[in-house]
Amino acid sequence: MTAAINLVMKPSGPTDTELVRRLLGGDKEAxxxxxxRRHGNVYRFALYMTGRPEIADDVAQETFMALINNSAAYNxxxxxxxxxxxxxxxxxxxxxxxxxxPTVPVDEHHEEIDSVAAVRSHVSNFIRKEKIEAVRKAVLSxxxxxxxxxxxxxxxxxxxxxxxxxxxxxxxxxRSRLHRARGILAEKLETARDQNSMSDVVKSTRxxx
Length: 209
What we know:
The chain is mainly alpha-helical. It has helices spanning 2-9, 16-24, 28-50, 53-68, 81-100, 116-129, 132-140, 144-155, 160-167, 171-207. The radius of gyration is 21 Å and the shape is globular.
């Protein structure tokens, strides 16, 4: 019983905000801990957005360097450290993508959504069942403004409010884009699964030819 009580009362580690305060004061261990905690989120976001590990590496490094140099000052009153870092990463990713091709106009859909739960469940089932590579390719093929909401809301499980903060837009914009993105993604994953099934049938037929 005593051991259990001691375990409950044991102080937890420093929060992300505390680590930021310490690293800005020159604490290298604080930086190492924050990097360990949040590097994966930043890297995965950049990788899913670009499909290129080398860019994801660069974006992750640039994101943490911006934090260290205080060139993008963190304000704890405006949100969590994780959201702040993803916001920096998003800006870095979009800058890289726009250097490679012109900006694609955003096609917004603000209609009432009646089947969001059904569509979301459909997409989530694919994400759980399909091969990671198939999901990655399908997400990467989405237009940028749809891709980022899927990555943040579905893959990184951010709330609408957190995603809106990262994207610097209204929550309604997040909902609208995500609704449209889920529909497109579900269609792409259905098509990919059908193609894979057809490929398996063809291979099986050849084996008996």
